[in-house]
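Comment thread on ticket #2218

A.B. wrote:
> Attaching the input chain for the structure job we discussed in standup.
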Amino acid sequence: MTPPQKTPHFSPKTRRRINASDLAPANRTLGHVADGRVRLERLATTRFISGRYRIAGKEVRRSTGEVTLEAAKIEAQKTWIELNARAVLGLPVVEPTFDECAKKFLRHADRLREVSDGQRRNYRQKWELLAPELTGVRISNVDAQFLLNLREKRSAARTKQGQAISNSTLKKDLDFVRLVLRYAKEWEK
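C.D. wrote:
> Ran it. Output below, let me know if you need it in another format.
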């Protein structure tokens, strides 16, 4: 019995054969730190070097924010120590971002139906408005100073009619943030 033949894949536009390397550029491993427990990689999609950690049975990848290997090694070592300390203290190693919690909160509110349909629609509209400011922010980074800065940015913005944003709107913005944080604390343990 002969093995099945591999069918070559061709690009419909260029009629050129597609190789696996054309589909997904490979990540390059540049080195290791912490006795080989942390792998430093340069992802194909970014110029920054990231560290890949395995802590408490979870795979974690964090950008070092550095482009040189020596500086990345220092940052990766610091991150390794921080993640280990979090694991020893029983804190979550992989911390959710605000946008992840906000999306889960909106699904939770729809599922429980504790508030009216109109209020849930307001939650979704508020999230669309605040998403550019809160996407990618770690929950632990949302502190009093962060909220003051957010309120300052929102108060400097204008409505569609060109008017200043009212204090009641700013209060509703912070109420939405408070509800998401409460959801993260009580439901996303």
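A.B. wrote:
> Thanks. Noting for the ticket: Helices lie at 20-23, 69-89, 98-112, 117-134, 144-156, 167-186.
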